[in-house]
# Entry
Amino acid sequence: MLIEYLTFYLIFIIIASLLVSLIVLRLKFPSPQVVIPLVIALILVPAPVGYVYVTYFNSLPETSIPDLSGLTLDTAMAKLESLDLKGRHAGSVYDMKYPEGRVVSQRPEAGRKVKVGRLVSLLTSSGRRRTIVPNLLGRPAAQIEEVLAAKGLLLGEVRQDFMPELDPGIVLTQSPLPGEEVDVDSAINVTVSSTAEAQEPAGTATDEGGFRLW
# Structure
């Protein structure tokens, strides 16, 4: 390891000397008082830095990044700690493959060789994808399926309410309400206006004596 460091350092000195010589020739420094300190600095400054890197950072043991996919965040953190690695929760993303709170991706990737103490960033699943319920109130019924589909929602039960003063098919109420957050593929129930009164279901008329006929 020390031999490698000395080799690289020697190459650096040669390259630095050539660069300094080129600069001197191009700029035509009038005095050696400027050139000599510059050369000494270029040669000596990297020496302690390189030595610290070789003797400390490069001498740290390595370990392999484990595959943490599908684990809970706490379990993944504990597994990293057992390998002298550090875990960091980098956020959550939607992933249909894993339930909420499970690790879906990691950086560095599984299988990579890294120094102990390396920080590993973890992304977890946010669970089912969520969306905001759009405002359907006052819209014609013919438009609501298209509006819901754009948000990944479905049209649920459609009820009618007698409203002779309104055009037929106008959305009067909806459930869930506008602005609520729901899972994608949820059904939205609506009530629409109707200009025709609801007919009495067959078999519910009464005779003259007031008894219900079935």
